[in-house]
Amino acid sequence: MGLSPTMLKALTLARYRTPSPIQASLIPLALEGLDVIGQAKTGTGKTAAFGIPLIEMLEPRGRGPQAIILAPTRELTQQIVIEIQKLAQTRGDVSICGLYGGEPIERQIRSLSRGVDIVVGTPGRVLDHMERRTLYLGDIFHFVLDEADRMLDIGFRPDIERVFRKLPTPHQTMLLSATISAEVRKLAQRYMHKPEEVNLSRDEPSVDTIQQYYISVNHDRKLELLAYLLKRDQPRQCIVFTRTKRGADRLAERLRRTIPGVAAIHGDLAQSARDRVMSGFRARTIQILVATDVVGRGIDVEGISHVVNYDIPDDPENYVHRIGRTGRMGKDGIAYLFVGPDQGEPLTLIETLINKVIPAHKVDGFEVARAASSAPPARELFNTAVTRSSHLAIR
Question: What are the Helicase ATP-binding domain coordinates in residue numbering (predicted)?
């Protein structure tokens, strides 16, 4: 790919052997200085796809950073910093700084004042530093939007546009996203210059390497079922998704009574506590992580073998993002979806979105008792609805 010997050495140390499709397609375009839109499924190596060319194109340090990477969450920001540091490990002159809330801003100001090459941050904290004039933008040439769809979903569009308007001209923009919505497309058309587009998602919202199952269970037996599955499957690492922060805390507390290595993470935790949990999860001292959707999407750890949807998501798209935490970089993964007797409709909506019937997984002793006068088995209705949806999609 025409990479420098220094970069090739770093890739060898990081055990990168063969570029993923998004890396092979996007890196050469980025190295030419072109604006690039990269669309690829979660867990396909997007961070290295923009991180490698950024490091390769760095010039001798000037007054301020040369690249800004925006990400939607603190956790994803921290993970990008770690990945970029790994890619730059054979260059002793590259400095990276993470800018995000929940940590003293004075510490970040000191880091910026010492001089950095690459800034990785959440939109709000980056704007905070811009307004304080502690972040100099005059030397910026590379601007990366990672998980652009997620940032727009949670309302960061005004912040992103404010950053865009302050960047010097010319500059290179790389936009990475799992999906290219109309809003993402509009942002690209307004602020990017003749972008080259790389689309490797094939419009498939689910991940092929993930074995997906739903399990019918009464609501009052979900905890018992979860504990049984964890002991039976012995996952390398597992994320259990709940709907609420309180529910995450309560579930983690109950699991810890019988299962070691359990922790909860959600938006109400102090940043220091979230850092400790994520450090433990990456180090595998924490094997079971109970998380909410807001935090869960920012978790990128390759060792995750299982995802359990303890609470069925309100938005079907959140199901796709949840299960995308496993099956990363081509590795196999298992995703379970707990479905109560009254939750046939949200299951159908998920299956319609992914254009696939999720097979049932029966666990002896956890069968759902149905009243004799109940309606016909809901599964037949699910199959009919999804089959009909599939035919419409094919047409």
Answer: 27-198
pLDDT of residue 321: 81
- Is 177 within a domain? yes
Q: Is 289 a member of any domain? A: yes
Instruction: Output DSSP code: residue 330.
Output: G
Decide which of 172, 199, 226 is a domain's last residue: 199
> Of the candidates 360, 356, 361, 358, which has an alpha carbon nearest to the alpha carbon of residue 387?
356
The residue written with tokens 């994520």 in the block is 278
Q: Domain limits at 114?
A: 5-199
Given 155, 175, 199, the domain boundary residue is 199
Lowest mean pLDDT among 1-15, 140-154, 190-204: 190-204
pLDDT digits (tens, 9 = 90+) for 60-113: 888 899 999 999 988 889 989 999 999 999 998 899 999 998 888 999 999 999
When divided into structural domains, the chain yields a total of: 2
* Residue 158 and residue 222 in one domain: no
* Cα–Cα distance measured from residue 350 to residue 359, given in angstroms and rounded to the nearest whole number: 13
For the chain, what is the radius of gyration of the CA atoms?
22
Enter the tokens of residue 79.
């993970």
Q: Are residues 288 and 343 in the same domain?
A: yes
Residue 307 and residue 191 in contact, taking contact as beta carbons nearer than 8 Å: no
Q: pLDDT (tens digit, 9 = 90+) per residue, 235-245?
A: 999 999 999 99
Peptide bond between residue 205 and the one before it cis (omega within 30 degrees of 0): no
Report the C-alpha gap between 152 and 123 in whole angstroms.
11
Tally of CA atoms within 13 A in the half-sphere of 75 that contains its CB? 25
Does the pLDDT value for residue 205 go beyond 70? no
Distances (CA, A) of 199 to 26, 112, 362, 379: 10, 35, 37, 35
Q: 177 has which bridge partners?
A: 39
Q: Cα separation of 359 and 233, whole Å?
A: 18
Per-residue confidence band for 388, with pLDDT thresholds at 50, 70 and 90: very low
Query: Would 205 be classed as within a structural domain?
Result: no
Mean pLDDT (the chain) is 86
